[in-house]
């Protein structure tokens, strides 16, 4: 039995959330709302911890936020005087599917009890872990949060803020973390700001940290600003504090704008929905084609399809129905079964019958799903199918927390665009250019390592890369 | 704890499905696929029965198709030589939420063991039930299928086909049913064809009945034709048989095209997606307004919004993000909580900021959700909100299986359009006209009782109407 | 996976319970307590219904009482003004393991809504069912309660009491039933009183019906008397009413005293524990043997072992430890696995080492378990094992609700005592005589059909017997 | 909702189990059987880990062994070439009820991955834990196993055996542990042997460690010998190895013989069942009384009651029926409810009616249950109730893993025997003397700290004792 959405998208993001409330609040409920808004960033596990300064409640499990936190379990997390909480939704990155790897990770240390949740990946976690093992440390999970916690705990002479800043300097990679003690909420972002983290505040003064603004809105908070690359922020009775630990050239992950982030927010000052429209417009300028309608692959291709239609003047239409109940059904892992899953999820409407169709999607990873969608459209009577992709070809793996499949499975790392076109059976195929993407997103800098192989925040040691490839 | 999607749509449809396969097939699995495609027609319970001519397996429970039929329970329904099956998804109509009311209903009769599943409502079920109670019948459920089965069983001198035709003549209302014995699959539709039922066939010769074509496609079948109003069809070794029992003027339910049916099919010869585009175009012609963008209420308003944008020349844009995980979360039933549910489901994008927005939805029932959506747009910076609805005002309850709320809750039965506009806070509000809707859908006839109060297939006795009102 | 206690006892009893409370009471809770006390009579399913004169709540499912009725489900059955309730625990008799066959069975009839639960078996249910099918009745279960309810409903001109009395006259066999309408609790016992039913009353005036006195005590009621063979009793605002419908020679089932009933009660005036002591004493007189200790097979052989030890003067000792957690574990149905189950349940103590052991059990059905127990004792160092059984050899099947295995599996129907002794590997083997058993139990009459083949309440038609044999 | 058996016994034991098999075996299944046999030692959580030398599978959860390890989860633990495994059943000792505290605890260390499960308590765990926290260690649980694992991991220059021996020297208290790496099974017992651990071997050469012999028998192994106080044993390809690390005067816990251990085994050379008989005989000699029958409180009082009856010549009888389904039901924690629980569990038989009863139980902790049992007997007609207890009065708390309630709740620490007698309402009350108990058990030495306050293996620092008292 395999639970697997009929998808061929980059995966393995996580979402983090945190709250510091000067006055008592129902933080378990607010954290639930925040995690629910971040559900698209991880469907495999959910967890949270809540403290009132004395008690420290934690619960986490495999499943969706609404599956893990039923009414009874949410009640078990409630504290009348709660003022700090963090939460996490997870799609497995490194570390297997075990329940024991769910986050937040909680532990007793010489700085009191701590809870930590992270999004992203530390590229040198293995070396650091090995060194600490030799010094007598235990590792009860394969979760990288445990490495971070050990680094923090090891500095027994420092206070929590100093020790966290010290740990940030030692761990390389792309990450955004929320950390709590009984009294303080901390958040920090890697030196390049590869993974996102935003700060919000409610009218009652409560501070919020989240991977995306939607989770701020979900708890009635306003977006204040993004945590800066390399910045450590913390919240206590004194309000918001900040320390720039290791600021470097900002290179936030471009895939947040292409696909991951919800379209109702902005990150690092760039609106998600508007940037997707611009990607479609740019694509239409770069890769025009004569056709009758522009059709998105729902839901992630909608923004770019609207932009493409707008720039090209070709009518936008809904050519693919998406079954809202798809995603979680059991199917034997045969090729026939995988094709079935696409059919259970997407179904062509009459809009494509007899039409020359421009099909807009945000990315192609392995190409298998794309082939089936093209095929569905042809069976439904589309005369031509012109495939347009609002990201450049993905040729390199991500080491900063995104699972883009192993390199050998990335169709664009081993095939030319023409070969991919043939593979997926489209009449034409074109990707947005990398400069075109950067222009569409705007902003200062971007990580495009998966398109270019240039990794701003370092890579794992070579033998680790090999191991990762073997393990996938 | 209340499970309630943040919705204000007409509800309470059901979906039916049936298979007759001359050669052995994995009917449990095919029925699962068919029901999964019909999931949008009922999320409260799912069930199926399967027979190989001797054994007769049945399983049903509260929950989504994928929740009820996990691998183990699906295995329990499998029969190596299965050749008949039926299935059902349900949103509670008359009869409460009890597990005992899940369908199909199965029973031993003098015609052997029978399984029945229906969509719709019998308006004279209470009278027939009362008469049969007096004659000594038992009713173990409040499910109307049981009345139909008693009518069939009572005619002990007739065969199954005759007895079913006889029962069709006695029960009034709008309905579509699938019925199976160990050897035969039957399907029938009320005299006016209010509720839909289509016939399909697979390449291997297996016959399929379903509420919508999408379920045919889901099992690899082609659409052959609709079951005719008042027609009884059955399938056995001799193939497809038909009997026109009570054909009357066809008046299929207009809400199938407005909202219920999936956009990837056609019913009674009229394509769903194309008709929704036409509704939007008609609405733009009837109720034009100056504005900057046309925004759908996702997902059901998309087709009409595209049509409206196309006819008016005003750009289509995505102004509301819909959380795909919304729908099933527990919230206390307070007003504040209901508003929260809308916020957990819908969230404005930057597209509406500073814009004059035409918001397109398919219907307004109580108006509460509409007010919140208008409010969300204003908070996000929309300068004007012009609400356009692709159905006429709903002023009367449905007695044919759709729960449109009790009449006193129907905002349009007690308020003028201007009053509703004020209530929901829109700058302008307009509905498609009833003739305009008929023209957009096309076809021969339509039931528009909920707009006009003219009930083609009769109404319950008055005191039943009152009781229904009291019970809601 | 097979859930199967390591047992070779007669099985398939059920337990019934009912309450009529003139003043409001928490009947859901009291019924829960009553059913919990009757849990030993059926572990496969549990159910109850409760009414306050208007509402009629029912819930039932597969599982133990404490598994089915968790706090939430029990709350769902609570009614502030409840005054009637019935409940049932079930071990599957006729009718398969389906959830749909759980009791009580509830149905709407011309006498209002009714709930029925029964213990026992109607030997002519098939004929009655066939006749009613021909008349147009539906049967949604294979539960005999449905036949009884159809008989009651068919007499639409009679009131509930008359109609129930009429149904009692038509159904033959051994049974005890509780039946409730919204206002009245009824109880009745077959003409021979084969199955037990007792009446109790609480200090607050509430009346109780139950299969055994332990369930009366569990709800704080005192034992008033047994329902008489062939008697129909009912309770309403007027208190207790009685009608002797079909009294015949009383022949209560002897196995209630041998094995079924809890030792803390009495039935038909005969104390259970005391009668078991007398069975052991009688056995010691009839079948003495020289030995060092008397060891019971726990727990059902304890009473007889005490009696045997007392009469013989040979010391009683605990030679077999019984694991209190045994009974419900999954094991593959191989011979090796079945032996494993006995080992997981029973384990010898040092008491038997080097001893001549008299092992006392209440019955031998197939003999397989007995062989393993003898073997366990020998492995633990018992020098001799003398097997003594406090029931006569079981040579005939029971048609009154007890599953004693099909006749061909009854070891005593195909083997002599000496052959059985050899089979189980005991040094000596002896059963109590049938007259000895009758004398030990005392009372007026007894059903000993399984020892003698004389069936006081009739047998099914021969072809039914064959079918039963085939189906087992 | 409170899950709480109607018991007033010393609690909080755990059970440990381990296997080393030179040839591949189904260790998951064998560990399941072993844990099932030890179920009486802990009903709150169960867990196991299994390794084949490479993979290391672990699973654990709250619940009974048969609840945690259903077929699917057991399958998840199976490894074709498994050769090492350990398992644990737990009743919460120090550390709360959290799932995270279930054992075995597994961790990656510089000695490879390790799994540890323990029974008992380290009296200086807090001090050791505090010191390690200061050095930078993390503690993710409140489970003392984690302290032991940190001690082992800290000695990065030693091998696993040396490091374990070193850890044994640093942790004080009463404990028995099983520990596994991918290749080796270790077992060790505290210097005084307070907690039990036995060694067994199967015919196929597999070695077994378990808290009691019953678990050896459950997997087809023979008892080889007890692990000696202060001994460390380990098993690898070279067979059994032993190191006497810290042998001190043996003082095994006397309550293993009084109550904890199953009657079908022996510990430290002393048979459990036989010693209970001797306790009863000794009690009869020390505290005789004229009476008609001797009645045990089932099941734990049976052995002593038989001994008392044998020595006194007064007939043994079964005066209390014990509901085998009692123990796990939800009840509100009111006084009335607690009394209800006793009634749901125990019920008097007719044996006590009109009799002078000697009631034999193994211990009295708080006295509340005893009072109710005496009351039940009186209500059932007992003329006199003489309470005899086969353990001396419990006046001191246990610090070696047994929860005897906080000292102030121990009725015997604040009341004289006469006061207790009055409290429980018995006609007479007598306990076995402490020398009498020692004589009945025999053997070399015994820990009787809970009777005498003399703690052979040390006590926690005073402030810890106070904290413990506060926390209970």
TrEMBL record, chains A, B, C, D:
Location of the active site: 14
Catalytic activity: 5-phospho-beta-D-ribosylamine + L-glutamate + diphosphate = 5-phospho-alpha-D-ribose 1-diphosphate + L-glutamine + H2O
Role summary: Catalyzes the formation of phosphoribosylamine from phosphoribosylpyrophosphate (PRPP) and glutamine.
Cofactor(s) for this UniProt protein: Mg(2+); [4Fe-4S] cluster
PANTHER family per record: AMIDOPHOSPHORIBOSYLTRANSFERASE
Gene3D superfamilies: 3.40.50.2020, Glutamine Phosphoribosylpyrophosphate, subunit 1, domain 1
Binding site for Mg(2+): 300, 361-362
Record bears the keyword DNA repair: no
Entry's Gene Ontology molecular function annotations: 4 iron, 4 sulfur cluster binding; amidophosphoribosyltransferase activity; magnesium ion binding
Entry protein name: Amidophosphoribosyltransferase
Record GO biological process: 'de novo' IMP biosynthetic process; purine nucleobase biosynthetic process
Organism, as annotated: Deinococcus metallilatus
Binding site for [4Fe-4S] cluster: 253, 398, 447, 450
Keywords: 4Fe-4S, Glutamine amidotransferase, Glycosyltransferase, Iron, Iron-sulfur, Magnesium, Metal-binding, Purine biosynthesis, Transferase
Any single Pfam family the record assigns to this protein: Pribosyltran
Superkingdom, taxonomy of origin: Bacteria
Protein EC: 2.4.2.14
Residues of the Glutamine amidotransferase type-2 domain: 14-238
Biological or metabolic pathway of the protein: Purine metabolism; IMP biosynthesis via de novo pathway; N(1)-(5-phospho-D-ribosyl)glycinamide from 5-phospho-alpha-D-ribose 1-diphosphate: step 1/2
Cofactor: how bound: Binds 1 Mg(2+) ion per subunit. Binds 1 [4Fe-4S] cluster per subunit.
